[in-house]
Write a structure and sequence with these properties.
The complex is a heterodimer of chains A (146) and B (149).
Chain A lengths: L2 E5 L3 H14 L4 E5 L2 H8 L13 E4 L8 H10 L8 E5 L4 H9 L4 E4 L4 H18 L12
Parallel strand pairs in A: 1-2, 1-3, 3-4, 4-5
Helix pairs in contact in A: 1-5, 2-3
Chain B lengths: L7 E5 L3 H14 L4 E5 L2 H8 L13 E4 L8 H9 L9 E5 L4 H9 L4 E4 L4 H18 L10
Parallel strand pairs in B: 1-2, 1-3, 3-4, 4-5
The chains are: A alpha/beta (146), B alpha/beta (149).
Amino acid sequence: MRTVLLIEDSPGDVRLTLEAFREADKSIDLRVVADGVEAMTFLKREGVHADAPRPDFILLDLNLPKMDGREVLAHIKEDEDLKTIPTVILTTSDAEADILTSYQLQANCYLSKPVQLEEFEGLVKSINDFWLTKVKLPQQTHGGRT
Amino acid sequence: MNRNRINTVLLIEDSPGDVRLTREAFRQVDGAMRLHVAGDGVEAIGFLRQQGIHAHAPRPDLILLDLNMPRMDGRQVLAEIKGDEGLKTIPTVILTTSDADVDVEAVYLLQANCYLTKPVEFEAFESLVQNISEFWLKNVSLPRQIRSA
């Protein structure tokens, strides 16, 4: 079973993403955190997230409260243990500067959220079809804890 | 995001059969894209750094990289790309026959953007290249960086 961590503060986008993933593959274990600080706590298995699973895949919004997505991305990709987790940016921004900065920080790919509901669903489905079905993800051999 | 632009893809692959299949599968999805091919790692780096006969090479929007190649292997090419401030932003997709976990782990550590295993079956291979083309050239926002030269 694949574990996906969605780092997203908009309840509407969380709900849409959950529904689109479930339609595509019911066995996905989708975890949600709503800000950057909580995302890092989850990934480092601290406090209330002490028993959190290591995600196979991360979907990261850029504009988040407390710690923004660029900072979360930088932390993930500087961490020897976390950097191998494919991290895909999913954001409303389509600014060239955000795209370039994300790739400089070694985001695995950058996707702009479509405004239309159906297109958004289609994009989430394509993420599932490509990243969780076709792509070979790293095995869970990290970190000691299971 | 990329609909108004002609995409340039660099395929780094030593097998002529796989080059041909990849070219055909890409063209079926996006007839306007430009596919450049480097047959080994040394040539790939020459192309990316615009050296020698590659002085006028375009900057690729996407790189497809095989792992097992003559002269300089794919892991070394990947390390060169991701260690270069000017090149590291180019999404680099590994496309290889290997499905060994050590290879998968090693290339994600080197910051490959994604890892795909080549299917043995002809039709499955063609369909995978179409998936790559659909996802990376149509859905993904690719960086539009002006070359620093």
